[in-house]
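USER: For my understanding, would you kindly supply a protein sequence with its structure tokens?

ASSISTANT:
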Amino acid sequence: MIRLGGVAALVSVLATVAFAQTDTITVEPLAPVETPTEPVTTEIITRIEGVASAAQGTVRVLDKITGAVTDLTLTPGETQTVGHLHVTLGDCRYPIDNPAGDAFIEMTIRYQEDDAPVFSGWMIASAPALNAMDHPRYDVWALACITQ
């Protein structure tokens, strides 16, 4: 009886190997992923049709050391300070046909009293990693434009 079980197991293994050798699997190459060739700039945001400027924009600041999360609501040209960061809003644009749909926020962020910004450019609320600020202590990302 033990011998019969061993033979049955051997036949099962051989059948599996034979099937695997006769079965053909073809692998199709994946299509290349398109990556943006140019940085997010004012010209790109301006080329998007149906976009309007908002009266205010909201950004979120995370202090990675303390875990503190702060939301800032800024008007264009206004600067607010969170910890050692000085966040200045340049512009906040949104799709006219869907104001709650997305936000394109232009901002300049300085650390402590440095003249050189740690970030200057556009952030897109729906794709925060597309043009992210690289800082060891703080993360900042766009949340929304406030139209009223």
